[in-house]
Amino acid sequence: MSRYRIIRDDGSSDAIAGNSFASYDEAYAVLERYYGDLCCSDERECYHIIDEPNGVAA
Question: What is the pLDDT of residue 7?
Fold first, then answer.
């Protein structure tokens, strides 16, 4: 079973990056809340959701 991890583009860790979720939708909801709280700023961090097959961290 896959797990989904949020990573930062710059490879750093923070309160969001590194978290692992059972579904893509759970991870997406976290990023949606994060980006929804920002207002047209170029100062935001960039995150992606990656698939970890069989729950193994990459």
Answer: 96
Number of domains composing the chain: 1
Non-local (6+) Cβ contacts of 8 within 8 A are 14, 16, 17, 45, 46, 47
Q: Which domain holds residue 36?
A: 3-55
Residue 6 half-sphere exposure toward CB, CA atoms < 13 A:
21
pLDDT of amino acid 42: 60
Alpha-carbon separation of residue 57 from 2, 32, 45 (angstroms): 10, 23, 22
Alpha helices in the chain (DSSP H): 24-36
- Cβ–Cβ under 8 Å, residues 5 and 54: no
